[in-house]
Design brief:
The protein has about 400 residues and is of the alpha/beta class. It contains 16 helices and six strands. It has two domains: about 170 residues; about 170 residues, Rossmann fold, CATH 3.40.50.
Length: about 400
């Protein structure tokens, strides 16, 4: 998919919240009755509005890397096609499950002398991306190093040197050292090169790269990224639950149960609609729908039936309004008079200590549902890991 120049402004990123702690920022917004900020945060997280760019020579490895970030294996519908012809086009590939999570395939960095990094960076609109992966398969070219140096000079922190390698390559340490030597010899100090297997992101350095991303991105962007990434490891599932915790709090706040909201109570139909959107997002994020489970089975060489059978939560299989309303009603019927004062203080703004039934029901129903769905996702990943271990032992 090529994006027309006149549409580019649509994809410009504006961080609506850049607080160190998203939940505390949202509470502060509620304190000051700035509901628009809370609504913006909910929408941002629900649609995962992100722009990630992958720069470097166009190659099978680069294409595989983009597809893996989308969670799409080769041969599947929506896969990014390999480009056999070097092209100067700037290509945009929205994620099929999260359309506002866009991967940008940047044109190759010209290997010419002299090379002006500003010309290239302006041409690809380098500053608009939330994250840029500078990829290479051997050692970084002098032109790529110039882009690194310019990014450092502009204090762009979310630029990552990514050495794409095959999992079969047994000489990874020497490849990393050669890349580091090329960088330091050209003036790049404190460089970090991440070894990434583009077809198996859960291995090598990609988990460490995500840890560094979590430190550098504004928290709302990190949470949005977490929600859009495929479920690579059980540890990532736990991180996704943390991200959904902030989304659930914000959604519950907007449901009408907190006294700072002018409308004292919102109809259950409105609450259930918001809850359905949150849980549909959770199902897609945790890769629990039939298509995602079947895709994972193909990636791991397994039959999909046993994986599907591990989904014991009905919402993991299908998010229906009937099931969501049932869960909301079940929680709302409980007696919350003994609700822990400490949890109240953690959950709501300081001057809104009386927790309404709508807020409480939404908060607990959604958190419980996401816990159940995350448990199913962890079981599926653990099953895959065990089968892979059995296969290695038998070989």
């Amino acid at each position: 998919m090529l994006v027309d120049e006149d549409k580019e402004d649509i994809y410009e990123m504006v961080d609506v919240l850049k607080g160190v702690n998203l939940l505390e920022t949202l509470k502060d917004s509620m304190e000051h009755n700035n509901l628009s900020e809370v609504k913006d945060a909910v929408e941002d997280l629900l649609i995962s509005r992100l722009n990630l760019a992958v720069a470097g020579e166009r190659s099978v490895e680069k294409t595989t890397f983009i597809n893996s970030l989308h969670g799409i294996p080769a041969g599947d519908e929506g896969v990014v096609p390999s480009s056999s012809v070097a092209t100067e086009d700037l290509r945009c590939y929205p994620n099929p499950a999260h359309p506002d999570f866009r991967m940008w395939d940047l044109p190759p960095i010209p290997i010419v002398t002299p090379f002006d990094p500003d010309v290239y960076m302006d041409a690809v609109k380098f500053l608009r991306y939330n994250v840029v992966f500078l990829t290479f398969t051997k050692t970084p070219s002098p032109s790529l190093v110039s882009v690194v140096l310019r990014a450092h000079a502009l204090q762009i922190r979310t630029v990552y040197l990514t050495l794409l390698v095959s999992g079969k390559n047994q000489d990874l340490d020497s490849k990393r050292r050669a890349s580091m030597d090329a960088l330091t010899s050209q003036g790049v100090t404190q460089a970090k090169v991440y070894l990434v297997n583009p077809s198996s992101l859960e291995t090598l350095d990609f988990p460490a790269l995500l840890e560094d991303l979590a430190k550098e991105l504004p928290e709302i962007r990190w949470y949005a990224l977490l929600m859009a990434l495929p479920t690579l490891t059980p540890a990532l599932v736990i991180q996704k639950k943390e991200a959904f915790g902030a989304l659930v709090w914000a959604a519950a706040s907007l449901s009408g149960g907190v006294s700072t909201i002018p409308v004292p109570f919102v109809a259950s139909a409105v609450d259930s609609s918001v809850a359905v959107r949150v849980l549909c997002k959770a199902q897609a994020s945790l890769c629990l729908d039939d298509a995602s489970v079947e895709r994972l089975a193909r990636q791991r060489g397994l039959e999909p039936g046993p994986l599907k059978a591990l989904r014991v939560c009905p919402l993991s299989v299908e998010v229906t309004k009937a099931e969501v309303k049932r869960r909301l009603a079940s929680v709302a019927e409980k007696d919350w008079s003994s609700f822990s004062s400490r949890l109240v203080q953690m959950a709501v703004p300081r001057h809104a200590r009386s927790v309404g039934r709508s807020f409480t029901a939404m908060l607990h129903a959604l958190n419980a549902a996401i816990d159940d769905m995350a448990s199913d996702a962890e079981k599926i990943l653990n099953f895959c890991s065990e089968r892979a271990k059995d296969c290695r032992l038998s070989c």
